């Protein structure tokens, strides 16, 4: 039989781990229509642990999604969104290491930025809310190049 002190200490340690695990931040992100595409798994495995100098990766609640920041002020990414056709707002973004990605970039009236990969199927979408752009530029989009290039490009911006 185990000593009571050992059982108590072990139980306390397990409860502490469970309690701390319950404090983890989780960001709700809507799953994309084609999130089950096997290429999305490769994309998600390659996303960085941090965007820019101060947006740490946090847990999400959906398949083929990622988020960085805090609830209410998080950059979110979904893989498996529908392909976007050619548009005038297609931008070629170089990551600085020779990797480049073409993105269709839009912003809405509220100041939310949307970046959707162009020429890659499945496409990935990154949403940057105004709460993030108040203190950050959107240049961290280049940090996602290694992840989204897991899906080969078949088209480029014109």
Low-pLDDT stretches are 4-22
Strand content: 25-35%
Number of helical stretches of at least 4 residues: 4
Helix percentage range: 10-25%
N-to-C SSE string, H for helix and E for strand: HEHEEEEEEEEHH
User: Span from first to last CA?
Assistant: 74 Å
Structural class comes to alpha+beta
The count of DSSP E runs of length 2 or more, i.e. the number of strands, is 9
How would the global form be characterised?
A: globular
Give the biggest beta sheet.
Answer: 9 strands, mixed
| Integer-rounded radius of gyration | 19 Å
Write down the overall mean pLDDT.
86
How would you sum up this structure, described in words?
With 158 residues, the protein is α+β, with helices and mostly antiparallel strands. Helix content is 22%, strand content 31%. The protein has helices at 4-21, 38-45, 130-133, 145-148, and strands at residues 26-27, 50-51, 55-60, 65-70, 73-81, 90-94, 100-107, 113-117, 123-128. The radius of gyration is 19 Å and the shape is globular.
